Amino acid sequence: MIKAIWQHPVWRKSLIAAFYASLGLFTVLFLMPTEFLPDESIFSWWDKAQHALVFAVLALLGLLAYPTRIHLIFWGLLIYGAVIEVLQSLSGWRQGDVYDWYADTMGVVLVCICALAIKILFLSRRTLKP
Taking the model in full, what pTM does it have? Predict the structure, then answer.
């Protein structure tokens, strides 16, 4: 019953729309000139936590929208994070940072590991039932 509700076309389309809308919103925020952003130090732990949280949210939305494409969401978001950092370096008003990309990666890895663990636990329970 839950599986049928979760895979309903309205839910799927809503999750897909939320995923791409979030990608667009975060891209704008990541590339916005710094005068529109709060002042932070060059290496701030809060900045890294924000990066990890944003990419964890993107990974979660991506996996909910495309539950059978864990590898595509994983690699796609890692590449997206790297491209964002390169674009920030080239912009002239933002500063790309490899540590930001590491934080992005940690957010994606955490969500993907949790998703794989849940998938393995769910599949193992299904196969154990008589």
Answer: 0.81
